[in-house]
Amino acid sequence: MTSPSSPRQPTRILLVEDNLLDARATLRALDKLAHPHETEHLVDGSEALASLAQHAGSDSTLDLILLDLNAPGVRGLDVLQAIESEPDLRHVPVVILSTSDNQTDIDGALRNGARAYFVKPRSVDGWTDIIAGLDVLIAGGSDSNTRPIIP
């Protein structure tokens, strides 16, 4: 356990997002997290699976995965299912960031192990609630049952 006087280790985040504008907005929003973090950005589901395979069973585990449901290559839902089937990764909270507010998509993501589902905001101000939800999730650790859903 980290002592109160020692610095907190950065939260290791994997962002899977193919849209460059959405990725930039997400990365800018992550800079407002209350927790120090390091973010790896990948642009499709195939890259995500390759990166996750490297993280599984290694010392460079992830603390949080931000996943676009509509990522090209391997779909986000398939990536989510792969994470849930891997014992070394299933403890890592996955948060879906999607343009879809379709209830079927939301239910499918949560049923397949997503810890939270956020509809991507159309404005900078819309990121405030998402960042607050991520801060709660990070502070609670991987055992947190927080499931914020922002339509």
Short description:
By secondary structure, the protein is of the alpha/beta class. It contains five helices and six strands.
Break the fold down into its secondary structure elements and pairings.
Blueprint: E1 11-16, H1 20-30, E2 37-42, H2 45-55, E3 64-68, H3 76-85, E4 94-98, H4 103-111, E5 116-119, H5 127-140, E6 149-150
Helix pairs in contact: 2-3
Keywords:
disordered N terminus, 151 residues, Rossmann fold, 19% strand, disordered C terminus, six-stranded parallel beta sheet, 5 helices, alpha/beta
Indicate the CATH architecture.
3-Layer(aba) Sandwich
Contiguous helical run count: 5
The CATH topology turns out to be Rossmann fold
State the name of the first-level CATH class: Alpha Beta
Helix content: 25-40%
Instruction: Indicate the overall shape.
Output: globular
- The domain count comes to 1
Radius of gyration: 14 Å
**Pattern of helices and strands:** EHEHEHEHEHE
The class by helix and strand makeup works out as: alpha/beta
Give me the CATH superfamily: Response regulator
Q: Please tally the β strands and state the result.
A: 6
Describe the fold and architecture:
Helices cover 36% and strands 19% of the residues. It has 151 residues and is of the alpha/beta class. The chain has a single domain, classed as Rossmann fold (3-Layer(aba) Sandwich). The protein has a 6-stranded parallel sheet with strand order 2-1-3-4-5-6, with helices on both faces. Strand 3, helix 3 and strand 4 form a beta-alpha-beta unit. Helix 2 packs parallel to helix 3. The termini are far apart.
